[in-house]
């Protein structure tokens, strides 16, 4: 209307379709937990070169009644935009803590040592976030040092409430990991200002091992900086034996990726821990 009477703005049908698609996805997502459509998979983080289980990363899965499995890459951004991530993320925290504590009860020392949970920027800046984490720990009985929250560099880049949340996590004894490390705006600068425990070197760098001299130099340097700072450094997205061997030679002690394990169901994790198939419950 601002541009005068009798004119009309150009209508972009593709944009409209996308907006509707998002709205539909958001509406479905808002009832997905209560309908039992959401569950977690757990991808092992392993020690190099042994391949021993060092921890698990909880990864959300949505089995849509009509569409089938929807990728987190598709629905997490929608959940972030609509704020649904806050409730969804709280569910992920409760469920992953419950599962980790149940495995400790059942397997003792053989249980996966650490549980990592992805947390969005949107969750981190919620004033309730530290209380949500505390409640998940208290209700499950999981010791705080067994939990790691994975955040991205961009979430904490601006400081403010997100950085305060990181400090609150560490005050609780919860570990903090920088996920997709190296892809942010100021990865090195962040190491000075944001106190963390773990660096997860992004797959895009690991992909260059062993073929790219430049990528290998980055991967090596990040490990040296992280190790000098007494951080745990994990190479993400390791897909081949050659990469795993080379990363070990470059000094890496931890890795994660399809070469070792895909994200596993809870039952598959138990089989891996038990070393033999667990008979299905009858
Ligand atoms: P991320 O935290 O960086 O997780 C790693 C992603 O890479 C996972 O995808 C995992 O399945 C995949 N991946 C692991 N190893 C390999 C490999 O060797 N090759 C390849 N090509 N991919 C590998 P996924 O499960 O689809 O999750 C995608 C992203 O969605 C995650 O990236 C994370 O940012 C987000 N996400 C997943 N679960 C949650 C959650 O519970 N809460 C939040 N806020 N975000 C989540
Ligand atoms: Mg992650
Ligand atoms: Mg990652
Ligand atoms: Mg990544």
Automatic annotation (TrEMBL):
<protein>
    <submittedName>
        <fullName>Uncharacterized protein</fullName>
    </submittedName>
</protein>
<feature type="domain" description="EAL">
    <location>
        <begin position="22"/>
        <end position="277"/>
    </location>
</feature>
